[in-house]
Specification:
Layout: H1 4-27, E1 42-45, E2 48-51, E3 56-62, E4 65-70, H2 76-85, E5 93-94, E6 99-102, H3 108-145, H4 151-185
Helix pairs in contact: 1-3, 1-4, 3-4
């Protein structure tokens, strides 16, 4: 007999997909200063690529500015270069002590591009959730073939898996709609 605890692993995978989507959305620059946009930027520190948030303090003195204060001033130039070569599209201002990132107001065209990016992230997440569903259904079918569950139990488990999938797909759609609304309001 297979139990629901075996199926919980698939729900955890779907939940992880939502966490990844949240992280991806955090990296989408929405006109407001958000330290998460720097999460994907690494700087060379003693020969090792190190995440930007591990080499200094990142603060947001106002809605449109991020200030990066490295713990080691020799990192100012490498941080500046890493930001310039990233896909952020913001020119850092280095005053010798801190680096300032000033986020400009988003243009209508840039908002539409970011909305497309949000939709792509949403689609990727839906595909990942459907892949988890496929794996879960395969797991259940193998268990039924081994005689660990009856056909009725298999059908119920498949329905439960589909219900779970529908729930997570709906969450992805809600998250996408919220992010798109946020982008268009700014």
């Amino acid at each position: 007999m297979i139990n629901m605890a075996d199926l919980k692993q698939f729900e955890k995978k779907m939940n992880t997909t939502l966490e990844v989507l949240t992280s991806d959305f955090g990296a989408v620059r929405a006109g407001r200063a958000n330290a998460q946009v720097l999460d994907r930027i690494s700087v060379e520190y003693y020969g090792t690529p190190t995440p930007l948030n591990q080499v200094g303090t990142i603060s947001s003195p106002d809605a449109r500015t991020l200030v990066i204060q490295p713990w080691d001033r020799t990192l100012l130039k490498p941080i500046e270069k890493a930001i310039q070569t990233s896909d952020l599209g913001i020119n850092p201002q280095n005053d010798g002590v801190v680096i300032r990132l000033i986020f400009p107001q988003l243009t209508e065209e840039r908002r539409k591009d970011l909305t497309k990016q949000v939709k792509k992230y949403g689609e990727d997440s839906k595909v990942a959730i459907r892949n988890v569903r496929r794996d879960a259904v395969d797991f259940v079918k193998k268990a039924q073939k081994k005689g660990e569950m009856t056909e009725d139990e298999e059908k119920k488990a498949e329905k439960d898996i589909q219900d779970l999938t529908d729930k997570y797909i709906k969450k992805v759609e809600e998250m996408c709609a919220k992010k798109e609304k946020e982008l268009m309001e700014i």
